[in-house]
Write a structure and sequence with these properties.
With about 325 residues, the protein is mainly alpha-helical. It has one domain. About 80% of the residues lie in helices and about 0% in strands. It has 13 helices and no strands. Keywords: Cell membrane, Membrane, Transmembrane, Transmembrane helix.
Length: about 325
């Protein structure tokens, strides 16, 4: 019965995080249109600042006291988020979509490596095979135009992949075992990221706010409500209930949703290689999630049954 309850809790977390991966995959098309209409930094400043404001309004219905840890950890996570997105967005602007998608997916492999160092707990080798399979799947999915010669954009994307993995592991380590409010953490995460982007380009933020037309405000609303309020709250909630390695695998489905939305609304087409890549991501991800769940359960059982050593005098 306990095992069934554990699987049910795990499935609930997975569904919430896959929802976040879906809306983030859908965000690429919206963000591309908005960056063509104005400043990239201005768009992100508006996106994260507005999300912080909406989260604060939601919190007002059920106030939770801001603890010192909420403020400090939430702010630290927000600064980390701003750094990751700075590397990622600038890398995407320089390199090709194929190179960017393939390189950033390396975080699926980097995350369990870094988490292994942080928690002194290594996942079975089969998990890394599954993670590698997911990365290969991303290569097939996004590789329609072929891989281009390396450039500085690829270096930025590689840095973003490492930073994304480090960010997820750090987020899990900072929040693990602490009495924290998820909504308070997410408010300070989004607020600090929004303020950083505003400082980077305050004039561009003001121009974006004044020049967006109704369609662009609708796209921004989608980014704010679903991709930021829901997406980052779901991530903060999920990281406190599962492992960073599991989240990395679930995030590996993000390119599938991005391509799916591009096909529906962007007029793009999926090749046979793309279909094979999507199936490889799903199959590898499902395999890896099963390995991770069993390894985490075995570790939990070992911790619960291990004898307590007497304290040394």
């Amino acid at each position: 019965m306990n095992r069934l309850a554990s699987y049910a809790r795990s499935a609930k977390v997975d569904i919430v995080l896959i929802g976040a991966a879906f809306v983030w995959g859908a965000s690429y098309l919206a963000a591309k249109d908005l960056t063509e209409a104005g400043s990239l930094w201005g768009m992100m400043a508006l996106r994260f600042s507005a999300a912080a404001g909406i989260l604060a309004l939601i919190r007002a219905f059920k106030p939770q006291k801001f603890s010192k840890a909420d403020v400090l950890i939430g702010t630290a996570v927000g600064v980390g988020l701003a750094v990751v997105m700075t590397f990622e967005t600038n890398g995407i602007a320089i390199t090709s979509a194929t190179n960017a998608g393939l390189i950033i997916s390396l975080s699926i492999i980097f995350t369990p490596i870094l988490e292994g160092f942080a928690r002194k707990f290594w996942l079975p080798k089969r998990f890394f095979l599954a993670a590698f399979g997911a990365v290969v799947g991303v290569g097939f999915l996004v590789g329609g135009n072929g891989i281009q010669a390396p450039n500085w954009g690829d270096a930025l994307m590689f840095g973003a992949a490492v930073l994304r993995a480090l960010y997820q592991v750090s987020q899990g380590s900072l929040t693990s075992g602490r009495k924290l409010s998820t909504i308070n953490l997410t408010i300070f995460q989004t607020l600090s990221a929004g303020l950083i982007f505003f400082v980077v380009d305050a004039p561009g933020t003001v121009r974006a706010a004044l020049n967006y037309d109704p369609t662009e405000w609708l796209l921004l609303g989608f980014l704010v409500l679903l991709c930021t309020v829901y997406g980052f709250f779901a991530m903060m909630w999920g990281i406190r209930r599962t492992s960073a390695s599991r989240i990395a695998l679930l995030q590996g489905t993000e390119p599938i949703w991005a391509v799916f939305i591009a096909i529906l609304f962007g007029g793009e087409h999926l090749t046979g290689f793309g279909i094979f890549g999507a199936l490889l991501i799903i199959g590898s991800g499902y395999w890896g999630l099963g390995i991770e769940a069993r390894a985490r359960e075995a570790r939990s059982l070992a911790s619960a049954t291990s004898p307590t050593l007497p304290a040394q005098q």
